[in-house]
Amino acid sequence: MKIVKPETQGFSSERINRINAVIQRYVSEKKIAGVVSLIARHGDIVHFEKAGMADIETGKPMLLDSIFRIYSMSKPITSTAVMMLFEEGKFQLTDPISRYIPAFKEAKVLDNTSGSGVQYIKPVREVSIHDLLTHTAGLSYGFDENVYIDELYRKKLWALVEKNPDVTLQACIEKVSKLPLAFQPGTMFRYSFATDVLGYLVQVVSGMPFDEFLRSRIFEPLHMEDTDFYVPPEKVLRFTSVYGPDEKAGLKVSDPFDTSRYLRPTHNPSGGGGLLSTTSDYFQFSQMLLNKGELNGTRLLGRKTVEWMTSNHLPDGVNLDTSSGFGLGFSVLLDLGKSPMLGSVGNYGWSGAANTNFWIDPQEELIGILMLQFMPSDTYPIVPDFRNLTYQALIA
Q1: What is this structure's pTM?
Q2: CA 79 from centre of chain
Q3: Cα–Cα distance for residue pair 384/357, rounded to 1 Å
Q4: Do domains 51-73+212-360+371-385 and 77-206 have the same CATH topology?
Q5: φ, ψ of residue 367 in degrees (nearest 5)
Q6: Cα–Cα–Cα angle for 108, 203, 157, nearest 5°?
Q7: Digit-coded pLDDT (tens) for 314-373
């Protein structure tokens, strides 16, 4: 990675230093434990800074190569794996997922129009691979306490994972296939377990365990040496702890680095939220995308494939929010005037549950990455602060 003076890439050093001041304020006020932030333009890094602690209890400082749980920032990586197989002619995105995972053949849709209790109806068509990539399949996550389908996810899926830490990816996906769909496939957006299903699709189609596919086809070619589904013993000292707000004041640890479940290999690698990574590793992945599928002579995707992935794929009348649509694994900014943050039309990226976030701006050839470990994710506006501070520093 090449780090240059901000002015060489159109930034003001004085203005970009405002990022450090704001992030340090979050740390000093004990709202978050520590942060690593990165900004790059035209392939050169203009800001790569650390602040605070990786673990407060042991006094372990944050490092530039600290390892973070990236949670849903796993999704763009899994989607990339899917599209690599698509480019090899392994399937069409319009294919029903049951062609590769037969358990989905019997999927039923919850009939929300029925006034006589819980009723299921046959889907108008089967769930497709495209539906899974765009979260329009009708699957769910189990996060909404007041929704019947989410209650089923908690009872049937998450209870299985909690009781049996050795449960396999195949067993989890087969359990998902037996749960009802929330709506007819392809008609609505619902953030869901879909990307975990895609991880299993990669395993089935490639004939290779999902984690091995990612390692051999993405991580090793891009030199993402610290990205995996667990932290090996020799890297534990670089692993961060997750914090949340204390009931009284300050921070309370919710997942200590030295007792975390991520210290053990898993039989259920989650393509939707299970990866750990470093800021520099994720920069390698992001730069590959900004370069339209290529990095340092290694091409993972074709140029037109990346353009397709980062276009809005949601059906007419369906949006992610007031300003954004969704592509094949990423949010896509469609209306700058309706966005709560500075940016450019065409920005794409995603975030993780512990406030990790990345975005790519093709117009400005710009990448921003924010890594921290604090839950719940929307408690403080550190993500919009970081993004706005990045763009206010861009002067050419």
Answers
A1: 0.97
A2: 10
A3: 10
A4: yes
A5: -130, 135
A6: 45
A7: 999 999 999 999 999 999 999 999 999 999 999 999 999 999 999 999 999 999 999 999
Domain boundaries, the chain: 51-73+212-360+371-385, 77-206
Quote the strand ranges of the chain, DSSP E: 34-41, 44-55, 60-61, 68-69, 109-110, 120-121, 242-245, 251-255, 276-277, 294-295, 298-299, 324-326, 331-333, 348-351, 357-361, 366-371
Is residue 153 scored above 80 in pLDDT? yes
> Which of the following CATH numbers is that of domain 77-206: 3.40.710.10, 3.40.50.2300, 3.30.420.10, 3.40.50.10490?
3.40.710.10
**Residue % of the chain over a pLDDT of 70:** 99
State how far the Cα of 325 lies from the Cα of 185, in Å rounded to an integer.
17
Tell me the C-alpha distance between 312 and 352, whole Å: 20
Q: Supply 240's token pair.
A: 């961060």
Task: Please give the structure tokens belonging to residue 255.
Answer: 């997942």
User: Does residue 147 surpass a pLDDT of 90?
Assistant: no
Query: What is the pLDDT averaged over residues 211-229?
Result: 98
Look at residues 106, 140, 100 and name the one whose alpha carbon lies nearest to residue 126. Answer: 106
Task: Give whole-number Cα distances, 39 to 259, 267, 304, 371, 376, in Å.
Answer: 32, 35, 25, 12, 24
What is the identity of the amino acid at 8?
A: T
Taking only the tens place, the pLDDT of each residue in 84-93 is: 999 999 999 9
CATH of span 51-73+212-360+371-385: 3.40.710.10
